[in-house]
Amino acid sequence: MSTSKKVITREEWEKKLKDVNIRKEDMNKLVMNYLVTEGYVEAAEKFRIESGTEPEIDLATITDRMAVKKAVQSGNVQDAIEKVNDLNPEILDTNPQLYFHLQQQRLIELIRYGKVEEALEFAQEELAPRGEENQNFLEELERTVALLAFEDAKNCPYGELLDVSQRLKTASEVNAAILTSQSHEKDPKLPSLLKMLIWAQNQLDDKAAYPRINDLSTATLEEPAI
């Protein structure tokens, strides 16, 4: 037997929303958290002045973190490693997986620019010893070195390693590690809250017809589908 859903009118829904007390200070902290985590240092500074919301970390460290991220994204991996060590040497000392991925990215950059002999020497001296200690590292190393076996490396089975997305992946991993070392969340809270909103709406859809937010960019309430 089918049961009809409860219908909640727009007026009733808006009244329920108004009854929820959300402090402006909490909203400001949410915005600041996003700006800091994503590295928008100028916007964070302006928001600090305008809202009086103090960031959880020194904004100067954002500039340093973004410099590391930019270096990886542009393929200057050795420069990124030096910058990370200047920030905090323990980040790489205590994270062998991150250090391996940075060294792997250095190898990828050598292959990208056709420096075959240098790439082989680097793989043998810097990465092979780590592969002997970790099976996952060895498999990743083998995939990377396999690029050298193809004339057109970009279109080989492992060609995705030469995509910009691989640089972005490595840069994101470094960014998260730096944030963690600063006792800051590696991911901003705002996207998680939006995912929670979508999940909650999906759960409610089975029980009621209500003014739904279909476009998160505008947060416009749509009339309930009856």
Poorly predicted regions are none
Annotation field: number of helices: 11
Report mean pLDDT, rounded to a whole number. 92
Helix content range of the residues, please?
A: 55-70%
Order of helices and strands: EHHHHHHHHHHHEEE
The gyration radius over C-alpha positions equals 24 Å
How far apart are the first and last residues' alpha carbons, in Å?
Answer: 19 Å
Query: Strand-residue fraction?
Result: under 5%
Taking strands numbered 1, 2, ... along the chain, how are they ordered across the largest sheet? 1-2
**Helices and strands: which structural class?**
mainly alpha
Largest sheet: 2 strands, parallel
Counting DSSP E segments of at least 2 residues, the number of strands comes to 4
Q: Any idea what the shape is? A: elongated
Organism: Dendrobium nobile
Protein name: CTLH domain-containing protein
Domain CTLH: 61-118
Pfam families: CTLH, LisH
Architecture overview:
This protein is mainly alpha-helical. The chain has a domain at 89-180. Helix content is 65%, strand content 4%. Strand 3 (212-213) and strand 4 form a beta hairpin.
Produce the secondary structure layout.
Layout: E1 6-7, H1 10-18, H2 24-38, H3 41-51, H4 59-73, H5 77-87, H6 90-93, H7 96-112, H8 116-133, H9 135-145, H10 164-181, H11 189-205, E2 208-209, E3 212-213, E4 221-222
Helix pairs in contact: 2-3, 4-5, 4-10, 7-8, 7-9, 7-10, 8-9
